[in-house]
Amino acid sequence: MAKFDNWRSPVAHLSEGFPSSLTELPFTHQINLRGDITDKAFKTAVKKATGLVLPVIPNEVGMGKDNIKALWLSPNEWLIVSDHEITDIRDSLAEIHSAATDVSANRIILGLSGPDALEVLMKSCEMDLDPNVFKTGQVVQTLIAKSQAIIEKVSDDTYHIYVRNSFAAYVCEWLVDAHVEYRM
Amino acid sequence: MLNRTSNGGKIDREKRVNFVFNGLSYAGFEGDTLASALLANGVHLVGRSFKYHRPRGFVAAGAEEPGAMVQLEEGAQTQPNIRATQIELYEGLKASSVNVWPSVDFDISAVNGLFAKFMTAGFYNKTFMWPRSFWMKLYEPVIRRAAGWGRAPTVSDPDIYDRMQCHADVLVIGGGPTGLAAALEAGRAGARVVLVDEQKELGGSLLSLNREIDGKTAIEWIEQAKAELAEMPDVRILTRTMLFGYYDHNYLVALEQKTDHLPLKDRSGKVRQRVWHFRAKQVVLATGAHERPLVFADNDRPGIMLSGSVLTYLNRYGVFPGKNIVLFTNNDSAYETALALHAERLKIVAVIDVRNDVTGELPDKVRELGIQVLEGHAITATNGRKRVSSVEVRAIDPGADKYTGHSINFECDLVAMSGGWSPVIHLFSQSQGKLKYDDDRVCYVPEKSVQEQQIAGSCSGEFLTEDCLNNGGVAGRIAAKKAGFSPKKEHEPLTVQEPEMGKMEPFWVVPGNVPVGEGSAKHFVDLQNDTTAADIALAIREGFESSEHVKRYTLTGFGTDQGKTSNINALGILAGILDKPLADVGTTTFRPPYTPVSYGALAGRNLGNWSDPVRVTAIHDWHQKNGALFENVGQWHRPWYYPKTAEKMQDALNRECLAVRNSIGVLDASTLGKIDIKGPDAAEFLNRVYTNAWMKLGVGKVRYGLMCHEDGMVFDDGTTARLADDHFLMTTTSGNAAAVLDWLEEYLQTEWPDLKVYCTSVTEQWATVSVAGPKARKLLQKIAPDMDLRPDSFPFMSFKEGEVAGIDARVFRISFTGELTYEINVPWHAGRAMWDAVMEAGAEFEITPYGTETMHVLRAEKGFIIVGQETDGTQTPQDLGMDWIVSKKKPDFIGKRSFTRSDTAADNRKQLVGLLTDNPDDVLPEGAQLVLDQYASKPMPMVGHVTSSYYSATLGHSIALAVVRGGLGKTGDTIFAPLANTTITAKIVSPIFYDPKGERQDGEV
C-alpha cells in the first residue's frame, strides 16, 4: 500500500474557506536528519543518498537533485523534504552516528503567496521577513501567532509554512482571518 | 457656523458634516475635529471637572488636552473619555459630556465646588479612614459615582482589532517638520524608514504656522516631501498612528486608528485599530513640543485656552474661538497668535506679558498695530460662569508672592495664554533617557540617550522651524548611517522665513492678594485632576516634598493626559515653594501608554478560540461528532468522556469503565509525547536520565521509567521501547513533552556532550489508538491477521511492527488500565483511518470509546500515578512507593545523589497511599486535607491531602489516592477528611485496589 493512502490532512475541513493565496501542499516525504556536519563520512553519505550538500549557514535551504531540499534547523539538524521517497538515506548512514527520522506525518505544509503574503505574515510572526532581510532560499523557525512554525521563502512572494499537525487548524484559521481585509 | 473664517484652513468647506453633541445637532466641515467643529459653533462648555464639577471647555487642540473629554457614540460602540481634540469629525457622530448629571449646563454635583475647602489634596485619605469597614460599603461606591469620568461599555466590543509586527532601519516618530526632514534624509540614504504620526495628515506644526520654506509655503513643502517619500519603496508612512510605548532594545508600540474617522456604517467588517510592534535599528524622536498654560486664579473657565492652540484652530481649521481676545504670556509666541487673530479682524483687547522691557520683532509688530501691551502685568482673576467674560489684570513685581496694585478689568470672551513650551519627552523618558533642566529654554530637554536613538527639533528644545527642519535632516542622516547606510550628498540646510523669538521668562504661578494657597481663588495646575497650586503647597506642608510624592498626594500628572500640560508647572511651583532650583526637583516618571489604548486593541485577534492555541489529534472530529466533552491537557483538547443522551457524568464513566473491564474500550492516546532517541550511547543516556536500569533491555521490549530532576523529585514518567541496539522510542506525559525534550537536550549539550545520542520529537508523527479490555486480542486479530498475538509471542511490555487494517503500524503491548492493551501507532494522518477500522472491527464487542476521566479511574484502580496529580514536584520515587524502580546498582543517574539527603531520606515524608472511605458511597473531594485526629483543635495538624478520588464502578465503591506523612507505615490506620459540613472517615490501604497480582493483563486467551 502506498505510503499516503489512508492519510487525511488535519485541515481538510478548513480548506474550502482558504483564500486563493493560501493552499495546503500535497503530502511530501520528510526526514528529520541529525548528524555531525564536520564528519566527512556523514556529509558524503548524505550527498550520495540525496544529492544534497547540507547547508551549514543558519537558516539556509540546500537544494539537491529531483527537487529534494534540506532546511537548516540547527548546526546538526536539517529537515529533508522531497516529492519522492528518500529510501537510501538510512542505509547510507547505517554505519555513521546520525539520526534520520521519518517525520512525513509530523507537519503539514501550507503555501502562502501573492502580494499580501508578506503583510499576512507581519500580522502573524515577529520575525523580520522583509525581502531585504529574508530572501528566497532562506528558512526560519518561529511562531505563527502562538504556534511554532517553520517558514521557508520559496520565491519572491511565496512562502511555505510547516506546522505541526495539532496546531494546523489553529494556524489555518488564523491565516484565513488575517486575509480578510485583503478580500474585502 | 458662527466662528469660521471666510477662507483658509485644511478643511473642505464644500463638505458639511453633521453631528450631534449632547442631543443637539450641529454641522462642521470635513477636516474638522469634534473640538474645532464645536468651537466653530460657539460651544465652549464641554464638561465638568473631576472633583469640583466646575464648567470646563477646550484648552488645547491635540493630545495634550487635559479636559474636553467626551463619551463617544452609544451602546456597544461607546467609548469613554475620548479627547474631543483628537476625534476626527465624521457624518453622524454622536458624543456627549462626561461627569455631568443631569446635564452639562445644570450639574448637581457642582455643589462640590462650595465645599472645596474640604476637598483638597489628601481629602479622601483623611476623611474616609474611619470607620474602616465603611470604605468598601459606603464611601468608595459613593465617591466613585460622583468622581470619575465616562461610562465603560456594558456589552462586548464588536470591533476588530489586530496587530502587525514591523522591523525598521529608522523609525521616525512625529510627522512635523523635524520628522519629515529626518524621514526624507534617511529614506534618501536607502534605509527602511517608518514614519508615524498621530494626526490624519503629515505636517505637524507646519499645518498651524504660516511659514515659508525655501521660498515655498509650508503646505507646498509638505506636499513635496510627501511626494518624494511616496516614491521611496522602503518608506512606510503611518498616519493616525499614536506611538504610545517605548521599551528596551528599540521595541516600540503604536496604535493605528484605521476606521475611527469613518461614519459608523462604513466601518463594518474592517479592522478598526491596529497595534504596531516595531523593532528599529535607530529611532528618531521628532515628537515636538507642548505649550504650557499659565497658572493664575480661576484659570479653568471655558474660553481660556493655549495660545498656540488658538493659532491652530485659526490656521488649520478656520475657526476663531473668540472675538474679544486677551493674550497672556511669558514669551513671544503669543504675539504671533495676536497678529494672526488681528489679521482676521478679531479684536485683540490686550496682550498681558509678565515680562518687563519686551522688545523684538513680534512684540514690536503688535504694538505697531496699536494693540495694548501691558508689561510686568498678569491676570489675577477671571469672571464668567460657563465662559470667561472678563479678566482682572494687575502689575506684579518679579519674585513677589503677593500683588499690590489696582486691577484693570478687561472684558473678553477668549483668553489665549502661553507659559512657554515643553519638549514632548515622554517617549524619550520611557526609553530610559535622562533629562536635564535647561534654564535658558525654561524646560526639560533630553540629556543622555540609553538606546539607539536621535532626538531632534522641538523635542530637543529647538523650537524654531528652521532648526527643526535642519536638525531633523541631520538626525535622519545620522540614524541612516548608524543603521548601516551611506547618505549620499552633503546635507543641504533649508531656510525658513519666520519671526525671531525673544527670551522667555520662567513664570510658574501668578500671585494673589494673599500667598497662593491661602485664599479662596483656585489656581489650577492639573485641570484633569482638579489639582491646584494650593494642593501642591498643602502637600509640601504635610511633608510630601519629593516630586513623586507630590504627584501621588495631589494626583498631578495622573489620568488620561498624564500631565502633558501640568507636570512642568507643578514642578515649577514645587521648586518655588521649596526655594530650590527647578533642576534639583526632578521630574516624575513617564510611563506608557502616552495616550490611552483600549483593551480590545491590546488583545488583537487573540480572542475566544484564539486566545490560546487549541491542539487537537487526528481523530478530533470523530470525538466531536460522537458527543465527547473535552478536557484541557496543556493546550490539548482531549476527550473527557462521551455521555450518551440524558446520561449523567458518573453514569457515563461507569459505563465506560465497565466496558474496558469486561469487553473493550478505545482511547485516543495520540497526545502522549514521543521522542526518538538514537545513537551508540542511547542506552547509557537512558540509564542516566531514568532511575532504573536500561542497558540490558532487549530489542523489541518496552520498559516503564521514572525521570527525576537533580533534587530527586519525580518529573516525568512513561514507557520507552528499544527499537534497535542504538535506537529507542520514549514516551512522555502529554503535558510534558516539550519540557522533557528540552531536559534531554540540555543534558546532552551541556553535561554529557561526549555521549553520542540524537533526540528527535516525533509526538505528532504518530497517532495512537489504544485498545484495552479482555477482548482486545480478539479485535486486533481481526484487523491484523498476520500478526502473532499469542501472549508468549507478543508478551506484555513488548511491541511488534506490521500491517494493521492495511496500514503500517507499530503496536505496543503496554497497559495503563491493567487490562490487556494494544496501543496501535500509525502515522498521524492515518490516525483517523485506524480509529475507524478499530471501531468497525470492535462493533461486535460493543467497543466503547472512553476519555481521560475513565482513564484516570481505571489507572487509579490499579494504583498507577499521574505525574502532576499524585506528584507536585516534591515527591521522590520512594514517596510514591516506587522504590522498586530506583536502581541500587547504577553508579549514577539524575537525582540519585539527592536520595541520601537527610530530608529526602526521612521516613515521615508525605507518601502515597490508598484510601477507602468507611461509607463506600462517599467520594472524597480531590485536594481535601487529611488529619489523624478529627477532634484536634484548629488549626488542625494536617498530615496530607487527597490527590485522586473517584467512584469505581468495577469495585462498587469509592477509591482515593492520597499523600500522607509516613503513610507507607500507616496501612490500616484511620484518617479523616474534615470538610465544610461533615467529616469523612477513611482507612489507609494499599494504593492498588484492583487485580494486585496483574492477572488480567493477558486478557481472554
Strands, helices and their partners?
The complex is a heterodimer of chains A (184) and B (1005).
Chain A: E1 22-24, E2 29-35, H1 40-50, E3 61-63, E4 69-74, E5 77-82, H2 88-92, E6 98-102, E7 107-113, H3 117-124, E8 139-144, E9 147-155, E10 158-164, H4 165-183
Antiparallel strand pairs in A: 1-7, 2-5, 2-6, 3-4, 4-5, 7-10, 8-9, 9-10
Helix pairs in contact in A: 3-4
Chain B: E1 12-21, E2 24-30, H1 34-40, E3 47-48, E4 55-56, E5 69-72, E6 79-83, E7 93-97, H2 123-127, H3 134-146, E8 160-173, H4 177-188, E9 193-196, E10 212-213, E11 216-217, H5 218-230, E12 235-238, E13 241-247, E14 251-257, E15 271-285, E16 289-291, E17 304-306, H6 307-317, E18 324-329, H7 333-343, E19 347-353, H8 361-368, E20 373-375, E21 377-383, E22 390-395, E23 408-411, E24 414-418, E25 421-423, H9 426-430, E26 434-438, E27 443-448, E28 453-455, H10 465-482, E29 496-497, E30 524-526, E31 531-532, H11 533-541, H12 547-554, H13 567-578, H14 582-585, H15 599-603, H16 620-625, E32 629-633, E33 636-641, H17 649-662, E34 665-668, E35 673-678, H18 682-689, E36 702-708, E37 714-724, E38 727-732, H19 737-751, E39 758-761, E40 766-772, H20 776-783, E41 798-804, E42 807-813, E43 821-827, H21 831-842, E44 848-849, H22 852-861, H23 902-905, E45 910-917, E46 929-931, E47 942-952, E48 957-965, E49 974-978, E50 983-989
Parallel strand pairs in B: 1-7, 8-9, 8-15, 9-12, 15-28, 17-24, 18-19, 18-24, 19-20, 34-44
Antiparallel strand pairs in B: 1-2, 3-4, 5-6, 5-7, 10-11, 10-29, 13-14, 14-15, 16-25, 21-22, 22-23, 26-27, 30-31, 32-33, 34-40, 35-38, 35-39, 36-37, 37-38, 40-43, 41-42, 42-43, 45-48, 45-50, 46-47, 47-48, 49-50
Helix pairs in contact in B: 4-5, 4-10, 6-7, 7-8, 11-12, 11-13, 17-22, 20-21
Describe, in plain words, how this protein is organized in 3D:
The complex is a heterodimer of chains A (184) and B (1005). With 184 residues, chain A is an alpha+beta fold. Helix content of chain A is 23%, strand content 32%. In chain A, the strands form two sheets. Chain A has a five-stranded antiparallel beta sheet with strand order 1-7-10-9-8, covered by helices on one side. In chain A, strand 3 (61-63) and strand 4 form a beta hairpin. The longest helix of chain A is centred in the C-terminal third of the chain and has 19 residues, at 165-183. Chain B has 1005 residues and is α+β, with helices and mostly antiparallel strands. Chain B folds into seven domains: 1-119, Ubiquitin-like (UB roll) (Roll), CATH 3.10.20.440; 160-289 and 423-497, FAD/NAD(P)-binding domain; 293-419, FAD/NAD(P)-binding domain, CATH 3.50.50.60; 507-585, Arc Repressor Mutant, subunit A; 626-652 and 662-671 and 765-850, Probable tRNA modification gtpase trme, domain 1 (Gyrase A, domain 2); 674-761, Aminomethyltransferase beta-barrel domains (Alpha-Beta Plaits, 2-Layer Sandwich); 902-989, Aminomethyltransferase beta-barrel domains (Elongation Factor Tu (Ef-tu), domain 3, Beta Barrel), CATH 2.40.30.110. Chain B is built from 23 helices and 50 strands. In chain B, strands 8, 9, 12, 13, 14, 15 and 28 form a seven-stranded mixed beta sheet that branches. At the A-B interface, strand 2, strand 6, helix 3 and helix 4 of A face strand 8, strand 15, strand 39 and helix 21 of B.
